[in-house]
Amino acid sequence: MLVPALLKKQLPVDDEHQQRNINIARQRLAELEQQLREGVLTQTQFNEQYTELQLILNDDIEAAINAQPSNQQGRWVIPMLAVLIPCLSLLIYLLLGDTNALSKAELQANESKAAENIAQMIGKLEQRLQQQPDDIEGWKVLGRSYSYLQQYQQAAEVYAKLHNSLPDDTDVQLQYANNLAMSRGGRMTGEPAQLIGEVLEKQPDNATALWLGGVAKAEQGDFKLAKQYWEKLASLLPADSESLQQVQQMLVALDAELAKNTAAVAGMDIQVAVDIDPALKTKLAANSTVFIYAQAVTGPKMPLAIVRKQLADLPLKLVLNDSMAMQASTHLGQYQQLRIVARVSQSGQAMSQPGDLIGSTELSQPFAQQVASVLINQEVK
Questions:
Q1: Which residues contact 105 (CB under 8 A, 6 or more apart)?
Q2: Contact 214/233 with Cβ under 8 angstroms?
Q3: Which residue has the higher pLDDT, 260 or 127?
Q4: Fewest CB atoms less than 10 Å from the CB: which of 141, 215, 238, 246?
Q5: Residues 6 or more apart whose Cβ sits within 8 Å of residue 260
Q6: How many whole angstroms separate alpha carbon 187 and alpha carbon 250?
Q7: Among 101-105, 180-184, 203-207, whose mean pLDDT is lowest?
Q8: How far apart (Å, rounded) are the C-alpha atoms in residues 199 and 157?
């Protein structure tokens, strides 16, 4: 746009304007000659006005000529613009542009169209299922469609209905667990983890269950069991599988987490103070067994560390640590929350029974900076 304008020849001086000035000058000269012949002007006056007319005409023409710009004026800018503008444009594009913009726009358009088509299909499918509520395959398609659109709550409701109708269908059960967890922000704790555990009991080599089970255990802080699930899953996947690469990456992350936890929990002591409601203390013999133990709030319910005392020892203060663990591989510090429980057992058995007296409290990390105060004040029903 700029270069053609700079190369264009400059407009010439207005010839019409010059011709008009010349005609006026000639007309004025004719008038002066007429006045000279008629004696209105003397020869001297005629000569003076004639000279003045020549000067005016010459000044006008010279001014127009001097005002005409050179055809070469400003052309030095052309090479500079030819280099500067493309370079500047390229620099701005590299900084702000997106070389994949067209493909991304096309992909987004395709995805939008696919989502629109699925939404229309869902509407028709919902109408049909209202008329044919026993169409199992139709409900499965509806559940998958909701999941594709990331409408996890609706998908979970559909799979819950299917799970009630098909309690032995492990694929439906896993879909129900996954969508239920996603509807809760990805949290597996509670019913999703329970559903996955049931599938693993029936099908210990189910790849989907192993993956979801590992996720659930990692969320609970049980990194060792999560590692066992994912190592088993890795052994089942083909060597060239992309899923295998993802599992291997997760295993590396788990190893790093396990190493960090092992270093962090070494030598951790939890201070515990235990007492009993005086009104309950008289109900049991002084030599009744008292179990004091720690268990994970989310995770395995078996005691992580346990101490055995007698009712006569209360009130007392003690320390729970990894040396009291029921399994050598268990570390108190690998869990984010612990429940400290004190229970008076009438039978002396570790299993809770009706008539036992119990109390508990919960702690969150860091455990070492707290004292867990437990008051035994409830009766097990």
A1: none
A2: yes
A3: 127
A4: 238
A5: none
A6: 18
A7: 101-105
A8: 19
Q: Are 321 and 270 in contact (CB under 8 A)?
A: yes
Q: Tokens 């190493």: give the residue.
A: 259
* Tens digits of residue pLDDT in 270-294: 899 999 998 888 888 888 999 999 9
Q: 166: part of which helix (H) or strand (E)?
A: none
CA distances from 313 to 286, 310, 343, 355 (A): 9, 5, 13, 20
How many other CB atoms are found less than 10 A from the CB of residue 39? 7
Q: List the single range of 129-138, 260-269, 336-345 with lowest mean pLDDT.
A: 260-269
Per-residue DSSP letter, 359 = E
**In angstroms, rounded to a whole number, what is the distance separating the alpha carbons of residues 352 and 289?**
12
Strands (E), the chain: 269-276, 289-296, 305-310, 316-321, 337-345, 357-364, 371-376, 378-379
- What is the per-residue pLDDT for 23? 72
Distance CA 366, CA 364 (A): 6
Q: Which residues pair with 342 in a beta bridge?
A: 292, 359
- The two tokens of residue 371 are 């004292």
Report the chain's terminal Cα–Cα distance, integer Å: 91
The amino acid occupying position 46 is F
Report the DSSP pairing between strands 378-379 and 337-345. unpaired
Among 193, 186, 245, 241, smallest CA distance to 217 is for: 193
Instruction: Give whole-number Cα distances, 16 to 59, 63, 365, in Å.
Output: 17, 15, 97
Tell me the C-alpha distance between 344 and 356, whole Å.
6
Q: How far apart are CA 79 and CA 174, in angstroms?
A: 69
> Which of 122, 183, 176 lies closest to 150, judged by CA?
183
CA dist 137 and 140 (Å) reads: 5
Tell me which amino acid residue 206 is: N
Whether residue 223 contacts residue 254, with contact meaning beta carbons closer than 8 Å, is answered with: yes
Cα-based angle 112, 125, 159 (whole degrees, multiple of 5): 90
Band of residue 13 on the pLDDT scale cut at 50, 70, 90: very low
20-76 pLDDT, tens per residue? 767 777 777 777 777 777 777 777 777 777 777 777 766 655 555 554 555 555 566
